[in-house]
């Protein structure tokens, strides 16, 4: 698929600001805990047998998404689970087949993930003029477009991913960064227009490709789309205002320390986090691109003799960040990636090893952002406020049972975590 191969050239130059920002960064008590494994969680019902096509049949309503556990409120004194979110910017399937590879990795390790789809990955090259990017001429995109086969392959992976319980978010369209019309300069109205276009390309891929007989995506994208990550982590403030007006529930476009999240402009701020950078005195953004820039610069294929060491460095940094949360404040760990074989694919190997190491551990839940915000919304706000008093890596001094001993307020009727309605 041409589109994902072109993303490297568009991102490497434009996102250096994020890398430099990252470069400037600086066995808990189990008493009273109640293990709640994903196998025991009450799953949402699977798709209905009746499929209701939407628009031209590119998408369809098929019922509630399968394999989503019901979120529950923490009980008094209960230690929170360790959430880990693996997310992917771009989310297209090309000849590298990294989308399908990590779907398999997730399935084998009891994980779900979030895939941030770029809308132009579902728009064929010959229809590029249908895209009217803010502050750029029609048909312009810094990551290119796609072809019919690439679109068919990507749609297949999106369909299967959603049916397996993964989330489909958005990475918008043209991936414009920096000055001269980059997303950091866009107004709220321009962000809303970009979001509407990203949705439209998902909802009209059959019309735009002529693949009329292909199976639809099994979800209503207007309902499915609840969060995003902006290109190069730019333009967050105006994007969040636009996203809130359009019904989004979270954003993951900033940089945070490893502490419990809070709301910002009405959305959950689930920004990428700073984690240890082995061999360095500063911390690093938990994203493959940023590790690469701080190892090989803007060269996506640096010294082959260093590839293995660079991948190990990313893997070990992520694992160190995981351990200090797991044994400390239990803040959700947020990790971002791209389907790219930068530096010989060493970062893909590193991510896979992290998934295999952490996702099968006791009390760990590797989830999508949607599942995380569902859980956060289910909690007593006072409990979350108490969790936010813990610093990076800080475990409660008297143990979790004492720290969260107060009984939480009951969840409002119909809210996530509220008792299920009794059947008559």
What would you note in describing this structure?
The chain is of the alpha/beta class and 424 residues long. It has one domain (2-26, 82-323, 332-363): TIM Barrel. The chain has 14 helices and 14 strands. It has helices spanning 2-14, 16-23, 98-108, 148-163, 188-203, 205-209, 221-224, 236-245, 288-296, 307-326, 346-358, 369-378, 381-387, 400-403, and strands at 52-54, 59-61, 82-90, 114-117, 167-170, 227-228, 250-251, 255-256, 263-264, 267-269, 272-276, 283-285, 333-338, 364-366. The strands form 4 sheets. Strands 3, 4, 5, 13 and 14 form a 5-stranded parallel β-sheet that branches. A 4-stranded mixed β-sheet has the order 6-7-10-9, with helices on both faces. α2 packs across α9 (288-296). The longest helix has 20 residues, at 307-326. The termini are far apart. Residues 1-48 have low confidence and may be disordered. Residues 31-42, 69-78 have a biased composition (Basic and acidic residues). Keywords: Signal. It comes from Streptomyces viridosporus T7A. Residues 1-28 form the signal peptide. This is Polysaccharide deacetylase.
Ordered list of secondary-structure elements with their pairings:
Blueprint: H1 2-14, H2 16-23, E1 52-54, E2 59-61, E3 82-90, H3 98-108, E4 114-117, H4 148-163, E5 167-170, H5 188-203, H6 205-209, H7 221-224, E6 227-228, H8 236-245, E7 250-251, E8 255-256, E9 263-264, E10 267-269, E11 272-276, E12 283-285, H9 288-296, H10 307-326, E13 333-338, H11 346-358, E14 364-366, H12 369-378, H13 381-387, H14 400-403
Parallel strand pairs: 3-4, 3-13, 3-14, 4-5, 6-7, 7-10, 8-11
Antiparallel strand pairs: 1-2, 9-10, 11-12
């Amino acid at each position: 698929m041409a589109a994902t191969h072109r993303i490297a050239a568009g991102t490497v130059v434009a996102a250096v600001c994020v890398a430099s920002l990252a470069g400037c960064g600086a066995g808990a008590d189990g008493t009273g805990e109640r293990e709640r494994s994903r196998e025991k969680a009450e799953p949402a019902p699977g798709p209905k047998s009746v499929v209701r096509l939407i628009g031209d049949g590119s998408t369809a309503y098929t019922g509630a998404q399968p394999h989503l556990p019901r979120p529950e409120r923490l009980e008094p004194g209960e230690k929170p689970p360790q959430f880990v979110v693996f997310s992917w910017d771009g989310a297209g399937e090309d000849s590298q087949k990294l989308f399908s590879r990590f779907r398999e990795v997730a399935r084998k390790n009891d994980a779900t993930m979030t895939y941030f789809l770029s809308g132009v990955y579902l728009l064929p090259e010959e229809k590029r003029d249908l895209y009217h990017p803010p502050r750029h001429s029609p048909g312009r995109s810094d990551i290119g477009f796609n072809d019919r086969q690439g679109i068919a392959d990507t749609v297949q992976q999106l369909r299967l991913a959603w049916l397996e319980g993964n989330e489909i978010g958005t990475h918008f369209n043209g991936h414009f960064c920096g000055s001269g019309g980059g997303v950091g300069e866009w107004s709220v109205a321009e962000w809303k227009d970009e979001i509407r276009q990203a949705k439209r390309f998902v909802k009209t891929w059959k019309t735009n490709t002529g693949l009329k007989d292909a199976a639809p995506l099994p979800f209503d994208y207007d309902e499915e789309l609840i969060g995003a990550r902006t290109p190069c982590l730019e333009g967050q403030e105006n994007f969040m205002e636009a996203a809130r007006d359009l019904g989004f529930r979270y954003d993951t476009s900033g940089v945070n320390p490893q502490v419990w999240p809070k709301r910002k402009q009405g959305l959950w701020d689930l920004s990428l986090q700073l984690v240890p950078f082995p061999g360095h005195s500063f911390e690093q953004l938990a994203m493959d691109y940023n590790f690469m820039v701080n190892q090989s610069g803007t060269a996506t294929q640096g010294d082959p003799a260093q590839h293995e060491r660079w991948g190990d460095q990313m893997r070990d940094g992520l694992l160190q960040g995981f351990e200090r949360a797991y044994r400390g404040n239990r803040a959700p760990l947020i990790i971002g990636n791209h389907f790219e074989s930068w530096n010989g694919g060493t970062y893909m190997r590193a991510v896979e090893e992290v998934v295999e190491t952490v996702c099968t551990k006791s009390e760990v839940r590797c989830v999508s952002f949607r599942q995380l915000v569902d859980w956060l919304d289910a909690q007593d706000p006072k409990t979350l406020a108490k969790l936010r008093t813990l610093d990076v890596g800080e475990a409660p001094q008297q143990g979790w049972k004492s720290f969260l001993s107060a009984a939480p307020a009951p969840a409002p009727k119909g809210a996530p975590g509220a008792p299920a309605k009794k059947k008559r």
